[in-house]
Predict the 3D structure of the following.
Amino acid sequence: MGELVEVTAADAAHAVREAGERGVIARGLGRSYGDAAQNAGGRVVRLRDATGGIRLDPDTATATVGAGLDLDQLLRVIVPQGFFVPVSPGTRFVTVGGAIASDIHGKNHHVDGSFGRHVRRMSLLLADGRVVETSPDVDAELFWATVGGMGLTGVVLDATISLIPVETSRIAVETRRIGDLDTMLALMSEGDHRFRYSVAWLDLTATGAALGRGVLTWGEHATVDQLDDRSAADPLAYAPRQLVNVPPVVPRPGLLNRASVTAFNELWYRRAPAHRVDQIQTIPAYFHPLDAVGSWNRLYGHRGFVQYQFLLPFGAEATLRDVVQRLVDAGATSFLTVLKRFGAANPAPLSFPRPGWTLSLDLPAGASTLRDRVHDLDRIVLDAGGRHYLTKDALTTPECIRRGYPRLDEWMAVRDRVDPHGRWQSDLARRLGLTRGGTDAERSG
Amino acid sequence: MQNAVGEVQHVVVFGGTSEIGVAIARRLVTPATRVVALACRDVAAGEEIAGTFPDHVRVEVVPFDAGDTASHERVVAEVVERGGDIDVAVLAFGVLGRQHELDTDPVAAAEVVHVNFTGAVSVGLAVAGRLRAQGHGRLVVLSSVAGERVRGALPVYGGSKAGLDGFAQGLGDALHGSGASVLVVRPGFVRSKMTDGLPEAPLATTPEAVADVVADGLRRGRRTVWAPPTLRYVFAVLRHLPGPVFRRLPLG
């Protein structure tokens, strides 16, 4: 277990200096699915947010914010003024610092890339207590090592990010129900470029000819003339709400089992229209459906679940089909399985997205089928030139990360330059040998 | 670090040539496992066992003498230096002694207690200190059903294990809240080198079956397990039997 300390940007350096030999890691809202923001035996620092500290510059369409600020707080301020975040993941409850450290991606990756591409500059607290400015032009090496660097280069204190100007707070959505995986891949390959946002949900309970069936949604920021009169009166209205909360007591081993997940997936598939265009949805409904259900993770019961997200490069579609088939055969009871087509990569050595397909699914941690098969999947993914997403990872090994991220050594060299004594530490770093954590033996082993 | 489904990366067995200890290590190996450390007195025997682990596991054989308590902190430090954070440490060493000789040889009896109890307390504390500092990890202590009630046939061995059992339970409580924990294992009669030639007791088991029980106990976060599990209920009765009845039982 680690010790959690809440600090302001001003006293962060002190908290870092006081950390013992097990080191320190910054934590945002702790929404990484794995152990990225945990530090057993060491210290975890959380930057107190600075809600008042949003400096919006409408002329350059940028916002300068404290790194502890989360996207929910940011959206409440910028949407009514006609701006949207450059990248939105499936939840609003991530901090700007976390978004940089994970180099998060969203439904617009094929057009806009990941979060790091929209960071103009940031200030970074280094291991020796200095605060430095870094940007794609100032110490670019450190900048890109920090983007996707899982907090292991320093603590992001504040950042300036580019925003997307929007006319309305709504999304014009086109939905298609697709009967099988091959058709889905073909349609996304042909059609994604026409839309800013694209994502597909897959039904992993479907078998045979319906293998990989799912629902594809394309979206664009709606213009004022697309809205009905009532909405057009206040086109930038933004009021996200949490609709329900999962109670703290959920029957063991959780409500999600093979039967309920199958039923849910069937329902989700059937309720989707075969083809519908120009449906107007709100930002929360389109981007953050799970945020409407508080503590939804409790549905998995006390053992919880793990996320498994990997990427396969274009050309490896046969492997993607093979992996989906294996997941189906294993009876993977994934509540939500998401398929996304990635665009170009950015220069960050540890950034996850690169041209290809990414599939993410959540699996109950207690299932023995998962334990037995996941390492086989790792091998198949890596043999096809794929990789795993560090932010979601809770299962892979140092060897998997080495193979998936061939520029790991380049990243480590930058890391060692700014943190020669290995002060930044996390459970993820120790488990995957990303730092000098613990011992050199561990790292070389 | 252990991963999200409880697969461990680094296992160390103190008493690295013990059949039960090695069986447990083998049982805990998964594709996520990186290092198995065998801390043992007979390094050559340890090296031989090392060759039987799968290729992806690096096996470190570390010289370790359970009786040499002054060296224990250093041995634990060496294990960590070679393999990083300890996920699971197994205390598997122990000597049985020949009871009929121990009856008349207090010095030899004290030696059994020194290894089984004093040595285990010493290395157990060294490991616990490390687990506490790293904020995670499990210490598996091989006690015995004797931890519940000592038989007249093996008072020295049984007494040393009863002492160890009490120590391990107390240590588990002391570690509460630190992220580290202790699993006390109470096997009955295990067919192994140590019990070779002894009359077999009822419900006798094997090192592999003990390993299965331990792996299951670790996965479920148990504090005490029995091997075979039925012994929990057998001893729940036995511990309350009046002495004259207990003495007459055919327990091997």
